[in-house]
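Course assignment 3, question 2. Fill in each field.
Student: A.L.
Task: Predict the tertiary structure for the chain below.
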Amino acid sequence: MADAAVETGREDAAAVFDPLRPTLMRVAYRMLGSVADAEDMVQEAFIRWMKADRGAVREPEAFLRRTVTRLCLDQLKSARRQRETYIGPWLPDPVMEEEEADDVTLPLMLALERLSPLERAAFLLHDVFGLGFDEVAATIGREPAACRQLAARARRHVREARPRFQVDKERGLELAKAFFAASRSGDMKTLGAMLASDVSVHSDGGGKRPAATKPILGFYAVMKLHGYLAAQFRAHGSTLLRAGWINGLPGFVTREADGEIQTTALEIEDGKVAAIYVVRNPDKLRHLH
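Answer field:
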């Protein structure tokens, strides 16, 4: 009987929780930039939901969003320490999107990394998820006026990273496919015509696969890098698996010569590739398999 009651309780809890899981994952992922960590936070929230007096909770979504956000705030403290010892540039885990879900693009997620955890939470909850400051205050344990200040401070810091050029979905995919073709074939003339003068390359290997340990900056440095890479691609191969939207940017997934996959996301400004973000760290790509 006791086992049956536990199972019934679990089913009741899951019936409320499961429809909210995608929203909770979006909150956790945008807070942490890690799919695995976000999944852990959401699962921990489910465990707490199971143990809660659910009959006393009037708004389950608000309760669970608060739970997930607070768990993420705690997680960010340890994540920051880990990133201080990270080898090379750190990029958020790549997430493939069928549509541009919102304007939290990869450059904005990198800008969020420079914020304090509370600034990050206030900005995401209010500016991205549209919560009022009373709800933000209840979530992060600060007064509404303080939350307004946190969000305003965050907004000033990330203003430059907000999307300024909206790229049509089809046009974005065309650019991604053209970039793949030119970079893999060594068509440097076509590739050069696609790049902005101040283009940059950011590659995240995490010390587990070869990748530049610092960003490559400027047209000529990026062209030199791709001249070298094109020779490697021609000699050893690079297979396009899928083109699509990665963290709000057009890009593609490839299988490289070592048998591992990688993602490439392109920041487009005024029709030109302004930044190239390459994730090679296998730990950040497992969910894409």
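Instructor remarks: The chain is about 55% helix and 15% strand. The first strand starts at residue 96 and ends at 97.
Grade: pending
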